[in-house]
Amino acid sequence: EIKRIWDIMNSYYDRFVRTTNDNHKKQVQKIFKKLYEQGDIYKGEYKGLSRLVATIILDPGCSIGAHVHENEEEIFYIIKGTATYNDNGKTEILNPGDSCICLSGQEHSIANESENETLEIFAVILTY
Ligand code: MN
Question: Which residues are within 5 Å of ligand 1 (an ion), measured at CB?
């Protein structure tokens, strides 16, 4: 789905960059600064529907098993720890500062496979 959106936006993808990468941070800050300066980002109130806005804490060895989101989407942001993330069957390791989205119809799971470090995630589920 993401690749289809990139194609629509006429963007190409030839390398993988973590959101924690310094150059990525600089570029994102530059984009957000420009959006803020031209008035596209402003303080307001979210009026859409959601069913979850929470910080989730997973102790070592704990997980949220694989499940599918239908007619809703979930966004995870890693606050602390290391997450083993299953993104539609593809496993990724997520670190603090990384985020991911599970769109409607997609499957995901998240696990803390660490021996002794707590995993803290900020999660939002938006419904349609
Ligand atoms: Mn979920």
Answer: 74
